[in-house]
Amino acid sequence: MPQEQTSLFNLKEIDTELTRKILNEVYTALEERGYNPTNQIVGYLISGDPGYISSYQDARNKIQEIDRAKIVEILLNEFQKKSK
Fold it and tell me: In the chain, pLDDT over 90 holds for what percent of residues?
């Protein structure tokens, strides 16, 4: 049965959602280990040193899958949306 409607594929939206999901998982893992997730993630974003992120629940590997500039871009966009 042929599909009569073309589906749109938005790669940027999928990429953003995946980044949000990973950031939430990393944040939760850091919190569970007793770290201040905000401080740890900011330290990682500024320095690029993955040592700021615990390996608990594979958080370190997960966050390294995302380009740091992409994380900053998403955080800035979220901030802008909430500031309006």
Answer: 73
Number of neighbours of residue 70 by Cβ within 10 angstroms: 13
How many other C-beta atoms can be found within 10 angstroms of the C-beta atom of residue 44?
A: 20
Contacts of 62 (CB under 8 A, 6+ apart): 22, 25, 26
- Cα–Cα distance for residue pair 7/24, rounded to 1 Å: 28
Tokens, residue 19: 């980044």
Are 58 and 30 in contact by the 8 Å Cβ rule? The answer is no
- Please give the model's pTM, rounded to 2 decimal places: 0.81
Q: Considering only 5-14, 26-35, 46-55, 70-79, which range has the smallest mean pLDDT?
A: 5-14
Backbone angles phi, psi at 7, to 5 degrees: -90, 140
